[in-house]
Amino acid sequence: MPTTPSDIAAISQAVSDAVTRRPPQQARSRRSQAKVLAAARRLLEEEGYEGLTLQKVSRQSGVSIGSIYGRFTGKDELMHAVQAVVMEELGLAHRSLLDPSRWTGVPLRQLVPQLFDGFADLLRQFAPILRQMMLRATQDAEISRVGTEAYQSFITQAMAVLMQCEGEVRREPRDEALRFALFAAFSIYRNHLGFGSDKGEMPDIEWAALKRQTNDMVISYLLG
Fold it and tell me: How far apart are CA 57 and CA 35, in angstroms?
C-alpha cells in the first residue's frame, strides 16, 4: 500500500514526539546514575569494599536493584565507575592548582608552602575515598592501573611547576632533587592520612603543624 501524505505527517509527528520525549528520559537516567554513584561512594567511604553491596546502594539511592543491575554487572564494576568520577574530580582540582601560569615568577620559598599545602589539602579532602581505592588496588588490577595513571599525571604536572624554580635549587642534580622532595612530601601526607589502611587519619600530629614542618623540610633540602 503506498504511503499517503497523511501517513507521512503521522510518522513525522511520531518522530518529533519521540525526540521531544527522549531528553527527559535521558536526564532521568543520568540523575539515577548520579544517585547510584553517590550512594556507592558514601558506602565505600563509611564501610569499605566489604560493606558495599548493590542492595545497600539501592536502598540509599532510591534506585531499584533491577535498574542498578542493568547498569553494572556487580560491585566491582560499580566501584570502577565511582573511581572514574573521583579521578575526574581530583584531576580537575589538580589542573587548577598546577596551572603553570599561576606560579610564573613565584620564588621557591613562597611556592613550596602554597603549592604543597594545596596538594596536601586536596589529599585530605579526598582521603576517605582514596583510602579505600588504595586498599582495593592490591586486589583489583583496574583500580591499580587507573590510580597509578592519575598519580603519574599529577607528578608530571607538579614537576612542570617546580621546574620553574630549578635555578634556585642548590642540590644537584636539580630535577632529581625536586622529584625527591615531591615524593617525600607525598609519602608524609599519605602515611598521616592512612592511605592503604582502614584506620583513617593518624592523630599523632596536628594537620597544620604537619604541613608546616613538611614545607620547612622541603625548602631546607632544596636550598641547603
Answer: 9
CATH architecture for the domain at 76-223: Orthogonal Bundle (1.10)
Q: Which of 102, 92, 93, 116 is nearest to 164 (CA)?
A: 102
pLDDT, tens only, 165-207: 999 999 999 999 999 999 999 999 999 999 877 677 777 789 9
Topology of domain 5-71, CATH: Arc Repressor Mutant, subunit A (1.10.10)
Q: How far is CA 54 from the centre of its chain?
A: 22
Please answer whether residues 100 and 164 qualify as being in contact, where contact means their C-beta atoms are separated by less than 8 angstroms: yes
Compute CA distances 46 → 41, 50, 91, 131, 197, whole Å. 9, 11, 23, 11, 13
User: What pTM did the predictor assign?
Assistant: 0.84
